Write a sequence for this structure.
């Protein structure tokens, strides 16, 4: 049978299960990626499990999120991460080296490999012919220890690209077009695989832009072929020997198919406050802006900055506009400086920031209240920018630069200038000086972990009770993101290694009283939350499951879950349930008490059972999608408890 690329990648890494959509499969992981907002917890989990040495081909810890150092917290945690990478045998990318996804692409990504990262945009490296997926930190810790990742076998969604992009339209508009057609749930349960003659016009970094925002469609991953464009990229990075050709077999088919004619696309923009709220930029042209921001893992390439520099060259941005430039890798910044593009941006009035995630995760560059911000970032969920009442639009660098000049949202096709044709550097900088290689094992085993005062171990978590009466502390609507469950930004992320402290920010965007009410619920046996469709979309941060669990969350009952957050809830012993009949959502209210009896038996005996609403004579049919393996995790109260028990018995991890 002819195979597509995704099937080839999965088959070559399959360690358990059948390649039937919806069935659980186990996949061997070749590489892992962690960043400092999630990596501290991963390193603590490695320590708790007694892991001696990373068992992957390559694992890398990047410092790119928490690089504003207003006090000791971030700096101390970076020392902890550095010591942990030396102890466990990981690469360590120092502060200032750049954003994890493009740096990993430059230095470590290999066609034909699997990559698991504790960051939802890990899927960006699918541009290199990899199966690259985001996951919660606990899953990544287990992968580092040599364990498989367990996921539901996805469907493969083939997207045929034809034609060639017109002037003023770029790769960002391709993924925005797919979001315009299918919104933020369109890729759930799927790997998106791109093919077709249009690919020859897209560079490896253009493909990174598209693959990165597959996460915004809810996709398990995004896969591109490893072709001559990937070979060219690796050659430029001094790694041509890492290239292999990987393409779909002639006659390969897909579970679902779609076609995008690149020649027919126009500049697009996502309005607040969802990446799926996409319209042609011409529809909102003239809207005044306060900020125009270029950078992030969603537009990390040389051309993304260079095209903006050429648009503003010799001009000055409009008064009152903050024009923020966030370089994405140190070696790329070096080339932009060499070629004069940074000078053009600065002379036009730009503000240059250090290489890192920065404002994409709310770590600086927060916009003013009540003002519009244009960003080339992947997400515009409420409050993600660092401003609670933000108004963020997502767009291409072309739109961001044109709008900075005009002081209002501008269709770049209306500028009185030819479209800049950007030439990539012939000999791009290759800089490995801030990427520390793993220590040899004999040296590594003598390294002691450095733990600053902000690091707190994960508290013990009890097993799943058999009988519970749980008050519903929150009832929410559709598309609740992990940014709303637990915000990012400079206020919150410094506590990522301190669960009791970071829990104080849980659900604050939705209900500021949740923390106090959650703490009260702990002594009474915990609580439940209720939500709509696509609950937990967005970031892979496991703190969005851990913090509510610390505050007593035992059951999340929703219409359906986003993939990574669902897995994180299971990993930490929060029972994820869905309504069998979606109309039952309307029968229950915040404050109602859910009664769950004989629960441990019911979870093991089948996927559906009934729960009651106390005092209301209401019964609700619910279901879970747990595999047999995950049922065992749930009964133990989470993956940490299960792993500890097995290690104590001298058994393998899972």
């Amino acid at each position: 049978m002819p195979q597509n690329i995704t099937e080839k990648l999965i088959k070559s890494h399959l360690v358990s299960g059948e390649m039937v959509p919806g069935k659980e499969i186990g996949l061997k992981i070749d590489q892992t990626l962690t960043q400092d907002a999630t990596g501290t917890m991963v390193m603590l989990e490695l320590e708790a499990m007694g892991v001696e040495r990373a068992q992957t081909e390559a694992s890398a810890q990047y410092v790119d999120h928490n690089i504003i150092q207003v006090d000791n917290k971030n700096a101390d945690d970076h020392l902890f991460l550095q010591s942990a990478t030396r102890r466990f045998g990981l690469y360590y990318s120092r502060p200032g080296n750049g954003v994890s996804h493009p740096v990993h692409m430059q230095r470590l990504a290999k066609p034909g490999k699997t990559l698991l990262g504790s960051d939802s945009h890990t899927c960006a490296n699918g541009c290199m012919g990899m199966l690259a997926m985001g996951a919660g930190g606990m899953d990544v810790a287990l992968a580092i220890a040599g364990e498989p990742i367990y996921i539901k076998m996805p469907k493969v969604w083939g997207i045929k690209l034809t034609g060639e992009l017109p002037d003023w339209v770029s790769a960002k508009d391709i993924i925005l077009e797919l979001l315009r057609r299918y919104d933020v749930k369109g890729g759930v349960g799927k790997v998106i695989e791109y093919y077709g003659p249009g690919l020859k016009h897209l560079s490896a970094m253009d493909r990174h832009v598209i693959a990165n925002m597959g996460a915004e469609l809810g996709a398990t991953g995004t896969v591109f072929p490893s072709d001559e464009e990937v070979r060219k990229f690796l050659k430029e990075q001094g790694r041509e020997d890492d290239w292999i050709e990987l393409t779909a077999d002639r006659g390969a088919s897909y579970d679902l198919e779609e076609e995008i004619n690149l020649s027919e696309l126009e500049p697009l923009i996502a309005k607040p406050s969802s990446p799926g709220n996409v319209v042609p930029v011409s529809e909102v042209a003239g809207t005044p802006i306060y900020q125009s921001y270029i950078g992030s893992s969603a537009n990390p390439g040389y051309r993304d900055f260079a095209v903006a520099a050429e648009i503003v060259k010799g001009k000055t941005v409009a008064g009152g506009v903050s024009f923020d430039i966030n370089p994405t890798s140190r070696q790329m910044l070096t080339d932009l400086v060499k070629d004069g593009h940074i000078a053009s941006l600065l002379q036009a009035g730009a503000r240059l920031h250090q290489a890192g995630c920065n404002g994409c995760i709310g770590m600086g560059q927060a916009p003013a209240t009540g003002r519009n911000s244009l960003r080339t970032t992947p997400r515009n969920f409420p409050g993600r920018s660092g401003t609670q009442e933000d108004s963020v639009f997502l767009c291409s660098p072309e739109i961001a630069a044109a709008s900075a000049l005009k002081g209002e949202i501008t269709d770049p096709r209306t500028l009185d200038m030819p479209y800049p044709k950007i030439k990539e550097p012939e000999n791009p900088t290759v800089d490995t000086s801030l990427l520390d290689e793993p220590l040899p094992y004999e040296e590594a085993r003598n390294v002691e972990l450095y733990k600053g005062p902000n690091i707190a171990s994960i508290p013990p978590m009890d097993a799943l009770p058999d009988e519970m009466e749980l008050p519903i502390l929150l009832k929410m609507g559709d598309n609740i993101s992990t940014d709303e469950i637990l915000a990012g930004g400079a206020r919150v992320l410094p506590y990522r290694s301190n669960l009791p402290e970071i829990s104080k920010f849980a659900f604050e965007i939705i209900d500021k009283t949740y923390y106090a009410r959650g703490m009260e619920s702990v002594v009474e046996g915990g609580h439940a939350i209720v939500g709509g469709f696509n609950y937990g979309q967005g970031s892979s941060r496991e703190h969005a499951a851990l913090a509510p669990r610390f505050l007593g969350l035992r059951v999340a009952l929703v219409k359906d879950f986003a993939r990574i957050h669902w897995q994180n809830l299971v990993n930490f012993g929060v029972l994820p349930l869905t309504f069998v009949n979606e109309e039952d959502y309307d029968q229950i209210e915040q404050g109602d008490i859910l009664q769950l009896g004989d629960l441990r038996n019911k979870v093991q005996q089948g996927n559906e059972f009934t729960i009651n609403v106390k005092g209301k004579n209401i019964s609700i049919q619910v279901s879970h999608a747990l595999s047999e393996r995950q049922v065992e995790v749930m009964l133990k109260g989470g993956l940490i408890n299960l792993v500890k028990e097995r290690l104590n018995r001298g058994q393998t991890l899972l």
Observations:
- The radius of gyration is 24 Å.
- The chain has a mean pLDDT of 95.
- The chain has three domains: 5-264, 268-414, 468-637.
